[in-house]
From TrEMBL:
Membrane topology, from the record: Multi-pass membrane protein
Main location: membrane
A Pfam family: BPD_transp_1
Family the entry assigns: Belongs to the binding-protein-dependent transport system permease family.
SUPFAM superfamilies: MetI-like
Name of protein: Peptide/nickel transport system permease protein
Compartments reported by the entry: Cell membrane
Domain ABC transmembrane type-1: 109-298
InterPro entries: BP-dependent_transpt_permease, MetI-like, MetI-like_sf, OppC_N
Amino acid sequence: MSVQPLKKENKANHVVVTNKVKPETTDSQVDDNFEISFWNKFKRNKIAVICGAYLILIVFCAVFAPFLTTYSPTQGELASRILPIGSEGHFLGTDEQGRDMWTRIIFGARLSLLAAFVPVLIGTMIGSILGIVSGYFGGRIETLIMRNLDIYYAFPAIILAIALAAVIGSGLGTIIISLSFIMIPPISRVAMSATKKVAHMEYIDAAKTSGAGHVKIMYYHIFPNVFSPIFVYASTLLGLSLLFASGLSFLGLGVEPPIAEWGFMLNSLKDLVIISPMITFTPGFFIFITALALNLFSDGIRDAMQEK
């Protein structure tokens, strides 16, 4: 009896593999995704949203001030001097010369906000250039730039601003110039630190290998990648700039009378603190609440731009 060997049939399993190729993400889609993510994070911060709404409102009142009041910000009526808050026709009262306080507040917001934003803008532009250049080249160039900027740290910022304003003379331009000087060093340090993190990355080396010049690399490859930390930090300086600008005006180093500006208004009303304290505190209240709103709004921007 013969035994035939069993034949085993190995059936190959036919597996069909499909490779799904994901479409490439374009730069515009990345920007859209960032904007959506930023807004979703920001709107969850209710305090920052409220502060942003207040800032929009105060800017709107400052821009359209002539259409929001029928009174002059510089001329008043002596018969209506020191009217209390809630008076008929003057819901924020009047000052020592009979000028409507609401009118003075919204017209004064123009110069106060201008004196807060422009120095930060100028300081950001100059500080970013110095910081990026020093962080990109390093070595002696970094030492030369940063050690000279370190001189400013030898003096308190407000003392330095007062000294510069006293030398230049009073006026709105004086405030802007003096505050711009004290904004440059800290912004330069942030820009330099951010630049050092990206200056030796592969895409920077690739740009150098391709023959791109230093200016082109710093402008097209480094600046877009360090803009976020510079912008976030600069936004935190707006509230401080408003306080410094108001302080210089309070000391008589700002605008000249009878121009309306919050710091100068606080100075001119200080003698009424016993007679009418609420009128005296009105410009101070707007300085405080606006500086607070700027700080909380910048905190909301910082938190929304942070990557988790």
